[in-house]
Write a structure and sequence with these properties.
Elements (H helix, E strand, L loop, with lengths): L1 E3 L13 E10 L2 H18 L3 H20 L4 E10 L2 E10 L7 H4 L13 H8 L2 E7 L3 E9 L3
Amino acid sequence: MTMSDEHTAPTACPPGIQVTVQRTYEVHSDDDLLTVRHAVRAATVECGFGLVDQTRVVTAASELARNAFIHGKGGALTVELLTRTGASGIRLVIQDDGPGIPDIGAALTDGFTTGGGLGHGLGGARRLMDEFHLDTRPGVGTTVTVVRWTMR
C-alpha cells in the first residue's frame, strides 16, 4: 500500500532539486531517538529554517523515528538537505522492517493508536511537513518520506 501527498517518487528528485547533503542514523534505542532529534535540529539550522519551522521538522522527525523504533522494531532515518531555485529544504526518510501498517487511513486518524501514545504521531507529522509519502507492506515494513521547504 502506498499513500502520498506529493506527485513525485520519494526517492527521486524532480528537475531543479538537488540533494546537497545526505546523512543516515540508526534508530534502535532511546539514545538513537535523542541523536536523531539533535541531528535533525542541526540540519534545519544548516538549511536556514527559522525557529518555528525547526520545531515543526524536529517534532515530525521525532514522531516518525519513535514509530519506527516502537512499532517497526527499529530502523533508520536518512536526512537529506535539498536545494531548488529560491529555497532550501529537508527530506526525511524513515524506514523500518516491521510488520507494516494494516490500515493507513486509521493510522493517520488523530487518536488512533496501537500503542500507549496519544495517536497524533503519523497524522501530526503529515500536517507539519509540506510533502508526505507513506509506503507500507504487511510483513515487509514501512517507509515514510517527508519534506519541508524554507519557501513554499
